[in-house]
Amino acid sequence: MGPPAYLRREPFVRPANRLWQWFLTRYGFWAIPMPWRVVHVRRDIFPREDLMVWLVQHERVHYEQMERDGLLRWHFWYFWYTWKFGYRMNPYERMAYNRYGAHLYPEPALGHRR
Ligand SMILES: [Zn+2]
Prior knowledge:
It is a single chain. By secondary structure, this protein is mostly helical. It has one domain. Helix 2 packs across helix 3. The longest helix is centred in the middle third of the chain and has 21 residues. The two termini are 25 Å apart. 25% of the residues are buried. Zinc ion binds next to helix 2 and helix 4.
């Protein structure tokens, strides 16, 4: 695990609002980082300290990526990669999971990638 992300500005992590709660539940995600440094966390995950210790660090890696690549470029490539490789094999996710959370969501086995 690690190293922890070094950030110029820390995100505010909160239980998801109604819109994002619906989205996260509908698509089976745990959290979504807003470009303005607010992370919406699904409300059944937010009280789970055992998961949150990993999730917060994982999301911080995404902000490190945004600081490095720029907000617009990060979002463009993030959606492009997700479309092309799927969520888990998106290179931004592979890098973030390699540092935090791979034990919670391992990479799919070779030959079963989409
Ligand atoms: Zn991620």
